[in-house]
Amino acid sequence: MAGGGCWPGPGSLSFRLHDLLGLGLGMGMGSSSLRAAQGDAVLGDDAASPKPKRSLRFPLKAALTASVLATTGDTVAQLLHRHNKRKALHDHPNQAILEGAVAAPQIVNQATDDVSLWDHDWQRAARMASYGFLIYGPLSQVWYEVLDHFLPVKNLTNLSLKVVANQVILGPIVITLVFAWNKLWEGRLEQLPDLYRTRALQTLIDGWKFWIPASVLNFG
């Protein structure tokens, strides 16, 4: 039939199907469910996939790095200490006798020869290695993440703040922990208060000579 009123045109048919489907979805699911269904249709699999949760993991790389650095630093310190002790006994034997380093002048040479540069204190080395691995490595990892979170932009102001925070916050914490760790291994925790009183401040100030330039290079 050729009459225009018998069959609806394509536009009219599309409009009616859209109304019927919309009505059915609205009756079956409600407006909020409809919006959710529309959102799922747009997002697809991305909406259904859960967001990955950040799990707590031991910072193995940071711990190993700190352990190696602590062991290396302790090795250098032990070698320098024994070298200086040997040099002092050789250059000033009488002073060494008065200070009780040796018993009598006739055994100065023997005492000097007994101070070996390779007479390593392995227990002390183990203390420092374990301190770096178990304490300083994980602590520094968390510390630097906190600094980067609050001071993310690299500029002169943030660089200065990070360096200062490293010395006045992290520095005293590290000294407190390393003194306690060593005395715990030695079984002499009762000596800690006196150690803090006599050596902590000077150790912190001496550390600034190395750690301030190191921090500038690290954060720069």
Automatic annotation (TrEMBL):
Tell me a GO cellular component. Answer: cytoplasm
Q: How does it sit in the membrane?
A: Multi-pass membrane protein
List where in the cell it is found: Membrane
Which keywords label this protein?
A: Membrane, Signal, Transmembrane, Transmembrane helix
* Signal peptide interval: 1-22
Q: Does the keyword Protease apply?
A: no
* InterPro entries, alphabetized: Mpv17_PMP22
Coarsely, its chief localization is membrane
UniProt KW Transmembrane helix keyword: yes
To which protein family does this belong?
A: Belongs to the peroxisomal membrane protein PXMP2/4 family.
Identify this protein by name: Protein Mpv17
Q: Which organism is it from?
A: Ceratodon purpureus (Fire moss)
Q: What is the lineage of its organism?
A: Eukaryota, Viridiplantae, Streptophyta, Embryophyta, Bryophyta
